[in-house]
Write a structure and sequence with these properties.
The complex is a heterodimer.
Chain A lengths: L4 E6 L4 E6 L4 E10 L5 H5 L7 E5 L23 E3 L16 H7 L3 E4 L3 H11 L2 E7 L4 H10 L9 H4 L5 E3 L18 E7 L4 H9 L2 E7 L4 H6 L4 E4 L10 H12 L4 E4 L1 H9 L4 E17 L5 E12 L8 E7 L5 E6 L4 E4 L14 H13 L1
Parallel strand pairs in A: 3-4, 4-5, 5-6, 9-10, 9-11, 11-12, 12-17
Antiparallel strand pairs in A: 1-2, 1-7, 2-6, 3-7, 8-10, 13-14, 13-15, 15-16, 16-17
Chain B lengths: L8 E5 L11 H15 L3 E5 L15 E3 L5 H11 L3 E3 L4 H13 L2 H5 L2 E2 L4 H8 L1 H10 L7 E4 L2 H11 L3 E5 L9 E3 L2 H14 L5 E5 L5 E9 L5 E9 L12 E3 L6 H18 L4 E9 L6 E7 L4 H10 L3 H9 L27 E7 L20 E7 L2 H11 L14 H9 L5 H10 L4 H8 L3 H17 L9 H9 L4 H7 L4 H10 L5 E4 L12 E6 L13 E5 L10 H16 L3 E6 L14 E4 L4 H11 L3 E3 L5 H12 L9 H8 L1 H11 L6 E4 L2 H11 L3 E5 L9 E3 L2 H10 L9 E5 L5 E10 L3 E12 L9 E3 L6 H17 L3 E11 L2 E8 L6 H8 L3 H9 L4 H4 L10 E7 L20 E7 L2 H11 L9 E5 L5 H13 L3 E4 L1 H9 L5 E2 L10 H6 L5 E4 L5 H16 L4 E2 L2 H11 L9 H6 L4
Parallel strand pairs in B: 1-2, 1-4, 2-3, 4-5, 18-21, 19-20, 19-22, 20-21, 34-35, 34-37, 35-36, 37-38
Antiparallel strand pairs in B: 6-9, 7-8, 7-9, 10-11, 10-13, 11-12, 12-15, 13-14, 15-16, 17-18, 23-26, 24-25, 24-26, 27-28, 27-30, 28-29, 29-32, 30-31, 32-33
Helix pairs in contact in B: 1-11, 2-3, 5-6, 13-14, 14-16, 15-16, 18-19, 20-29, 23-24, 25-26, 31-36, 32-36
Classes of the chains: A alpha/beta, B alpha/beta.
Protein name (chain A): Carbamoyl phosphate synthase small chain
Enzyme class (chain A): ligase
Pathway (chain A): Pyrimidine metabolism; UMP biosynthesis via de novo pathway; (S)-dihydroorotate from bicarbonate: step 1/3; Amino-acid biosynthesis; L-arginine biosynthesis; carbamoyl phosphate from bicarbonate: step 1/1
Chain lengths: 375, 1068
């Protein structure tokens, strides 16, 4: 068994030595940890991980291999993967390839056999920082230099980088055991979804609920969207800092003025907050996991949610017509907002799960209810 | 929603004695519940018949009843204490069934007591197979095809529909008792018969088999606002077909994609909602078809369970404590997650960044006639848990933590036939045969085809075998840093490497240390390091960063007892917990090392620091290296840590308390004999044999009958009474491997002697007697299996004083610092010393509960240098009441096994009965042990020659009480000669109808059957005892037991006494 060496170098100069399990070469990005114990393929293919290298805290990653169903986009978006152990064998009835082969096929640089708990503790204490995985030919000094050259995610508009080039339709519904993905029948609503790096499961869940979807590029002006006469507008998740996305913020303001129902998730939530007049800020190491408790402030109910964000909406910055609807029970940060004078609301975590629990799926129903209310 | 103020007092029902299927995990959950509810200001009333529990410590509840757990007794407690509510979900199936009985008999209504934690309807819906199936159908979940049956005819019809193999599951039983898998009609009929007997509702579920499907468990917690969280997912290494309690299990689930996992998560929450578990923890079991992911629900437990104890230890989330608080009205978001210091709420799902493995511990060697194949009825008596940063590491740590002598994947056989059999028909060691299969060249596909164990697991074992084979023939010197580090990361123990490299453990250790390869310690924090923790709950692994952060405080380390097994159970964990509590109170930092997830000792807040580690020399030395304790206590955890004492001492570890040399002086027959001679104390004539020929010669010197046993054993393993040379010859040939290093001990057996147990404590200067316990069964029955009375019920004061004198003399001579237990036999006027154990004994918790003197705490402080005088403990406490400890046996779980008592310990647990007279205490102990004492009916007697005289009195007494008497010919003659009216009954060999027919026909109310300790005699009468057991007829296999029973039967009624009021009666 010949192993290819790899290192992970952090901007602070820490170097971890391990084994390459993906493509040979190097990659640079902001290093973040995710505590979800399942769903690595969904994570890798989530466009929100653009320019991020993700380390998964559960030590065995790759147990179920990879398949063509558990993807959230057409490609691997994470800049790299860091794990403790790649198992000797994957085992699942749906597996089509090993994780390692999948990473190689997607040209993803990845490293295994390092103390990922130590790495997580570094990120927790010092905050997210840039890192470089180098696999194959190793040059520690250069790797550290590359990591240091990455800079910060703050100020980076990545939504327009990952967005689609042209509008497209979406008709696939949610996955079912034994059936896989099926196509929607008749649709009751027409929803335009802004693609800032949209996860497919959001589209699937909307389609499941009778939404005929037109997915449009990030920079589509409001007028073009409104010209499609949608029942509602959806603001997707996506990577990077929301603040530089002024094109989107402007468009959202225009759409809100028409009283069209608006639903935002993650980056879409932050953009709604900004459009409503609030502010956003970068968090120390963000929320990345599938076990975060979020309270619905109206019902008092606690939902376990999937989370993946490094920026947040600042509560104190919100104007009077914005109500906080959900709150993180981990750190009290804003997890959901609703406008009091417009049919618009948003959620910071991931109601579409994938990976993670489905506890917040009811927000999709709330969106269709909002569209019903407009009729 | 804050806590409820409309209830002020809560009755908690415990689980009773340790039995298979219900071990000390319910002491852990019950103790947590007591603490949690008192913290909230509720008055807690507790009932539990098991004195060896932490929860029955008098300071754990406001009012503590060590009383039988039956609805009649609990009604008396309710009438007296008038609690507002009952929490029935902490005491396993015993407590749930008791709560249902209370409800059925109108007690709850009569006294206006509310069930909290689980409603009667929810319990019934979860436990009643028919209702459960209906409920699952309602929420769109599948169950295996099955039929509820109340008669054999119905069962056969159902069987025809589901086909073979068929699963038979009795309703309302614990640990799958009475159930099984039938592959043919004969087996099916046999299992149905015993299943109907086992089910209190005479109800069976005849179920389609999903053998070979993957098995999962989810631990779910729900609050009254309908917030639901999953604490832990568990995947079974052993696929469907083996009871989950007997399966090797791994957390978290390994081979599910997120989509499949979420289906299971949603389903488990839906199950809780539909069954109506409003608050608390539950466990839901699933089976998954490995070919297509099809999922079915197997069952759910609407209470905390063994799995929830495991999940609590595996994740650091204290399910029982939280469940108790939810039961009184809190919601999850109102409760804190202690492990993060309250930085986060309890309303989240733990994320773990390590792999947890649980391996069950079996004791089939105790029951040679028991069927050791694993099916749907649980047979294990304990379990070990291990954590590592990879499955391989955690698996190998668990194997060496089992205390079965394994160093890892030790070779079992090279026979392909045996291997194939063991893989396909699992027994207790299947996982070891998986490794053997790879060693002889079977492929992964072969092993999967036979065992259905998921290839993901198989690949890991195959890899370990590959590593091992690559080491063969090499030398330890050749291992470089990289290779050694890789091997240690895969969990290989030093001992295993030594075996593979043909060297010794010390050699591997020296080399490893020279390479500077030491384990690091990672924290269990519920959150995969997302939040900081100050909770020092740790496990070892081979990684880069160590998080132990040891302090410079004065520390005492307590070594625990490892997995429960017969001979070493909860009593030792009780002592370890007491040591930790006492020394913490005295200002020391306490460190616990143990690997048993069922225990209170492995609760992360029992000690200041918890190392969840196997108790092997390697693992303990590494913890000592990091912590550098001021002292280590080895005398509380039973044989497990004691075995390590000398090696630890040799490695420079400071052992406190009685020195390992003195422990050895007491265990080593020859040294001990010398010591007794110096003290002028008597021993039964005895010899030590180092060869079989030796044994035969020495036996003639001291004369038969003899007690024979290997040296250094606990629980009387391989101990026998032999009556003649032929027996001894067979014993030396079959039962032991005698050698110079492991000699066999021969003791003259004392006929008709009374056995006495004494516990004492010493600080090296003063010795104080803890208690003198008189056994009820005669000498020859293992002390752990014998009932005993404190204070003695028939020993003259002068004899007791002489026992005290001798005990103190021996404690002084052995320089005991800490606890010491002595067993005496009194034959006529002569006192013999049978054995001395300068360590915690099985009776310490019993004595402490009875006398109110916490012996284990006192002794721990003495070991740490606080004298008995300073502690104010200078005089023996003799209670003004009687307490009887009775043993509880697992015979019902092992069809065909004899119930006769002998020198080899067979009991799994104990109960206590207390009363103003010996009779009252004895009767209550029998009730607590599960016997129903008859008031009328016919008594069957068949006694051995030596008991013929004594049996007359017993029979006379029984007749006076209104019982009829029947007896076998010999016994009947003695009785009629004495003028008694007696009916003669055939022995089994004498033709029909015989005694077994009578028992089966329900004509017998009580069996008194004593036999000589001779093989033939035992075999001849086996069917009598077995059929009485099956028919649940109380039986006494000793005359002394029968005599005690007669005394007890004279009692019309008995009182209930709380521990607190009893202790108040003690004059200091």
């Amino acid at each position: 068994m010949s192993t290819v060496p790899a290192i992970l170098a952090l901007a602070d100069g820490t170097v971890f030595k391990g084994t390459a399990i993906g493509a040979v070469g190097h990659t640079v990005g902001e290093v973040v940890f995710n505590t979800a114990m399942t769903g690595y393929q969904e994570i890798l293919t989530d466009p929100s991980y653009t320019k991020q290298i993700v380390t998964l805290t559960y030590p065995h990653i790759g147990n179920v291999g990879a398949n063509s169903e558990d993807t959230e986009s057409g490609a691997v978006f994470a800049s790299g993967l860091i794990i403790r152990d790649l198992p000797l064998l994957h085992s699942n009835f749906r597996a089509e390839a090993s994780l390692s082969d999948y990473l190689k096929a997607n040209h993803t640089v990845a490293i295994a056999d390092i103390d990922t708990r130590r790495l997580t503790r570094i990120l927790r204490e010092g905050g997210a920082q840039a890192g470089c995985i180098m696999a194959g030919e190793i040059d520690e000094a250069r790797a550290i230099e590359l990591a240091r050259g990455f800079g910060s995610m703050a100020g980076q508009d990545l939504a327009q980088v990952v967005s689609c080039d042209a509008p497209y339709k979406w008709t696939t519904r949610e996955w079912r055991l034994g059936e896989g993905y099926t196509e929607q029948g008749e649709a009751r609503y027409h929803v335009v979804a802004y693609d800032f790096g949209v996860k497919h499961n959001i589209l699937r869940m909307l389609a499941e609920r009778g939404c005929r979807l037109t997915v449009v590029p990030a920079k589509t002006p409001a007028a073009e969207v409104l010209a499609l006469n949608p029942h509602g507008v959806f603001l997707s998740n996506g990577p990077g800092d929301p603040e530089p996305c002024d094109y989107a913020i402007t468009a959202i303001r225009d759409i809100l003025a028409t009283r069209t129902p608006v639903f935002g998730i993650c980056l879409g939530h932050q953009l709604l907050g900004l459009a409503a007049g609030g502010k956003t800020s970068k968090m120390k190491f963000g929320h990345h996991g599938a076990n975060h408790p979020v309270q619905d402030l109206d019902s008092g109910r606690v939902m376990i949610t999937s989370q993946n964000h490094g920026f947040q909406v600042d509560e104190t910055s919100l104007p009077a017509n914005v109500r906080v609807t959900h709150r993180s029970l981990f750190d009290g940060t804003v997890q959901g907002i609703a406008l009091t004078d417009r049919p618009a609301f948003s959620f910071q975590g991931h109601p579409e799960a994938s990976p993670g629990p489905n506890d917040v799926a009811y927000l999709f129903d709330r969106f269709t209810a909002a569209m019903d209310a407009q009729d | 929603m804050p806590k409820r103020n409309d209830i002020k007092s809560i009755l908690i029902i415990g689980a009773g004695p340790i039995v298979i299927g219900q071990a000390c995990e319910f002491d852990y959950s019950g103790a947590q519940a007591c603490k949690a509810l008192r913290e909230e200001g509720y008055k807690v009333i507790l009932v539990n018949s098991n004195p060896a529990t932490i929860m029955t410590d008098p300071e754990m509840a406001d009012v503590t009843y060590i009383e039988p757990i039956s609805w009649q007794v609990v009604e008396k407690i309710i009438a007296r204490e008038r609690p507002d509510a009952i929490l029935p979900t902490m005491g396993g199936q015993t407590a749930l069934n008791c709560a249902l009985d209370l409800s059925r008999h109108g007690v709850l209504e009569k006294y206006q007591v509310e069930l909290i934690g689980a409603s009667e309807d929810a319990i019934d819906k979860a436990e009643d197979r028919g209702r459960f199936k209906e409920a699952m159908a309602k929420i769109g979940l599948s169950c295996p095809l099955s039929f509820i049956c109340h008669t054999l005819e119905e069962s056969l019809e159902a069987q025809a529909k589901v086909g073979y193999p068929t699963l038979i599951r009795p309703s309302f039983t614990m640990g799958g008792s009475g159930g099984g898998i039938a592959y043919n009609r004969e087996e099916f009929l046999a299992i149905c018969e015993r299943g109907f007997e086992a089910s209190p509702t005479n109800e069976l579920l005849i179920e389609q088999s999903v053998l070979g499907w993957k098995e999962y468990e989810m631990e779910v917690v729900r609050d009254r606002a309908d917030n639901c969280i999953i604490i832990c997912s568990i995947e079974n290494f052993d696929p469907m077909g083996v009871h989950t309690g007997d399966s090797i299990t791994v957390a978290p689930a390994q081979t599910l994609t997120d989509k499949e996992y979420q289906i299971m998560r949603n389903a488990s929450i839906a199950v809780l909602r539909e069954i109506g578990v409003d608050t608390g923890g539950s466990n839901v079991q699933f089976a998954i078809n490995p070919d297509n992911g099809e999922m079915i629900v197997i069952e759910m437990n609407p209470r905390v369970s063994r799995s929830s104890a495991l999940a609590s230890k595996a994740t650091g989330f204290p399910i029982a404590k939280i469940a108790a608080k939810l039961a009184v009205g809190y919601t999850l978001d109102e409760l804190k997650n202690d492990i993060t210091g309250g930085a986060t709420p309890a309303s989240f799902e733990p994320s773990i960044d390590y792999v947890v493995t649980k391996i069950p511990r079996f004791t089939f060697e105790k029951f040679p006639l028991a069927d050791d194949r694993l099916t749907t009825q649980m047979k294990s008596v304990g379990e070990v848990m291990a954590m590592g940063r990879s499955l391989q590491e955690s698996l190998q740590k668990a194997l060496r933590g089992l205390e079965t002598g394994l160093s890892g994947f030790d070779e079992q056989t090279t026979s392909e036939e045996t291997i194939r059999h063991e893989l396909g028909t699992p027994g207790p060691d299947r996982i070891l045969y998986v490794a053997d299969a790879f060693r002889i060249g079977l492929s992964r596909d072969d092993v999967f085809a036979i065992s259905k164990i998921d290839p993901w697991f198989l690949a890991q074992i195959e890899d370990l075998v590959g590593e091992e084979q690559a080491l063969r023939g090499r030398r330890i010197e050749d291992l470089a840093h990289g290779e050694m580090f890789r091997l240690k990361r895969k969990g290989f123990s030093d001992r295993r490497l030594a075996l593979l490299l043909d060297t010794d453990q010390a050699g591997v250790r020296a080399k490893r240390w020279a390479l500077d390869i030491r384990p690091v310690y990672k924290r269990v924090d519920t959150c995969a390091a997302e939040f900081a923790t100050n909770t020092a709950y740790m496990y070892s692994t081979y990684e880069e960063e160590c998080e132990s952060r040891p302090t410079n405080n004065k520390k005492i380390m307590v070594l625990g007892g490892g997995p429960n097994r017969i001979g070493q159970g909860i009593e030792f964990d009780y002592c370890c917990v007491h040591a930790a509590l006492a020394l913490r109170e005295s200002g020391f930092e306490t460190i616990m090392v143990n690997c048993n997830p069922e225990t209170v000792s492995t609760d992360y807040d029992t000690s200041d620091r918890l190392y969840f580690e196997p108790l092997t020399l390697e693992d303990v030395l590494e913890v000592c290296h990091v912590e550098k304790p001021f002292g280590v206590i080895v005398q509380y955890g039973g044989q497990t840590p004691l075995k390590l004492a000398r090696a630890l001492e040799a490695a420079g570890v400071p052992i406190i308390g009685t020195s390992p040399d003195m422990i050895d002086a007491a265990e080593d027959r020859e040294r001990f004999q010398k010591l007794l001679q110096e003290l002028a104390l008597k021993q039964p004539p005895n010899r030590t044999a180092r060869t079989p020929a030796d044994a035969m010669r020495l036996a003639e010197e001291i004369g038969y009958p003899l007690v024979v046993r290997p040296s250094y054993v606990l629980g009387g393993r391989a101990m026998e009474i032999v009556h003649e040379p032929a027996d001894l010859e067979r014993y030396m040939r079959e039962a032991v491997k005698v050698s110079n290093d492991s000699p066999v001990l021969l003791d003259r057996f004392l006929n008709d002697a009374i056995e006495v147990d004494v516990d004492c404590v010493s600080d090296g200067v003063n010795v104080v007697i803890g208690g003198i316990m008189q056994h009820i069964e005669q000498a020859g029955v293992h002390s752990g299996d014998s009932a005993c009375s404190l204070p003695p019920y028939s020993l003259f004061p002068a004899v007791q004083d002489e026992i005290r004198r001798q005990t103190i003399a021996m404690a002084r001579a052995l320089n005991v610092v800490g606890l010491m237990n002595v067993q005496f036999a009194i034959q006529g006027d002569t006192i013999y010393v049978l054995e001395v154990n300068p360590r915690a004994s099985r009776t310490v918790p019993f004595v402490s509960k009875v006398t109110s003197a916490p012996l284990a705490k006192i002794a721990a402080r003495a070991m740490a240098g606080i004298s008995l005088v300073e502690q104010g403990f200078t005089a023996e406490v003799i209670p003004p009441y009687y307490a009887v400890k009775e043993a509880v046996f697992p015979f019902i779980k092992f069809p065909g096994v004899d119930t006769i008592l002998g020198p080899e310990m067979k009991s799994t647990g104990e109960v206590m009965g207390v009363g103003n007279s010996f009779a009252e205490a004895f009767v209550k102990s029998q009730l607590a042990a599960g016997d129903k004492l008859p008031r009328t009916g016919k008594v069957f007697m068949s006694v051995r020659a030596g008991d013929k005289n004594g049996c007359v009195e017993v029979a006379r007494e029984l007749q006076r009480l209104g019982f009829g008497v029947c007896a076998t010919r010999g016994t009947a003659k003695v009785l009629s000669d004495a003028g008694l009216i007696v009916q003669v009954v055939n022995k089994v060999a004498e033709g029909r109808p015989h005694i077994v027919d009578l028992i089966k026909n329900g004509e017998i109310a009580l069996v008194i059957n004593t036999v000589d300790e001779k093989r033939q005699a035992i075999q001849d009468s086996h069917s009598i005892r077995r059929s009485a057991l099956q028919a649940r007829i109380p039986q006494s296999t000793t005359l002394a037991g029968a005599q005690a029973l007669c005394v007890g039967l004279q009692l019309d009624d008995f009182g209930i006494y709380s521990l607190q009021e009893l202790h108040a009666r003690i004059k200091r």
